[in-house]
Amino acid sequence: MDAMTLLHERSSMGKLTGPAPTPEQLDAIYRAALRAPDHKELRPWRFVEFSGEGLTRLGELFAEAEYREDPHAGDAVLDAARKKPLRAPMIIAVIAKVTPDVAKVPKIEQVISAGCAAHGILLAAHALGLGAMWRSGKYAFDTTVRKGLGLGDDDEVVAFVYLGQLGGRHKPVAAHDARTFVERWN
Ligand SMILES: Cc1cc2nc3c(=O)[nH]c(=O)nc-3n(C[C@H](O)[C@H](O)[C@H](O)COP(=O)(O)O)c2cc1C
Question: What does the pLDDT read at residue 28?
Answer without folding.
Answer: 98
